[in-house]
TrEMBL record:
Taxonomic superkingdom: Eukaryota
Protein name as it appears in the record: Mixed lineage kinase domain-containing protein
Species annotation: Pagothenia borchgrevinki
This protein's record includes keyword Coiled coil: yes
Pfam family, one: MLKL_N
InterPro entries on file: Adaptor_Cbl_N_dom_sf, MLKL-like_MCAfunc, MLKL_N
Residue ranges occupied by any Mixed lineage kinase domain in the UniProt entry: 9-136
Annotated coiled-coil segments of the chain: 57-84, 122-150
Lineage: Eukaryota, Metazoa, Chordata, Craniata, Vertebrata
Keywords: Coiled coil
């Protein structure tokens, strides 16, 4: 799947997770961390929409796929927690606290992977642009030297 194919489903998952997290009140510290992470991921994924030159980047596609899997897993865990009866939430709070720490870590890892992939991709693009500019500059310098050589002959 190309990069663009990942963007909409990922943004939909982020929206669904934010909606679910807003409803849940217990384990609020973990959910606020996850919610903050989701906000950062949302901005990062939205920024990809505006980057036309990364459509066929294998590294970015892989990172987006991993992010989508992490978000799907997070959504499933949060839904499972949300569907528990209040007494079970209390009894299993430490168990779910650990699960939500894992969710946050996985989302953090996905964020780092995607950020790193985008950074490498951007560096590659900048390097190619610099090489192209260097070639153009070299060509223009050679062209200028040829024209100046022709003028030296006329002057002599």
């Amino acid at each position: 799947m190309d990069v663009v194919g990942y963007v909409t489903p990922i943004l939909d998952l982020i929206l669904a997770l934010n909606n679910r997290i807003g409803v849940i009140e217990s384990n609020s510290q973990q959910f606020s961390r996850i919610s903050a992470r989701l906000g950062k991921l949302e901005k990062l994924v939205e920024s990809i929409q505006g980057m036309g030159q990364i459509k066929n980047s294998a590294d970015v596609s892989k990172a987006l796929n991993n992010l989508q899997q992490a978000l799907t897993e997070a959504k499933n865990k949060i839904e499972k927690y949300q569907n528990l009866k209040p007494l079970l939430k209390i009894l299993r709070s430490s168990h779910y606290e650990t699960k939500f720490k894992d969710v946050n870590e996985r989302l953090s890892d996905a964020n780092e992977e995607l950020s790193g992939s985008l950074h490498v991709r951007q560096n590659n693009i900048q390097e190619k642009l610099k090489e192209e500019q260097d070639r153009k500059l070299e060509y223009l310098e050679e062209e200028l030297d040829r024209k100046l050589e022709g003028k030296k002959c006329i002057i002599l």
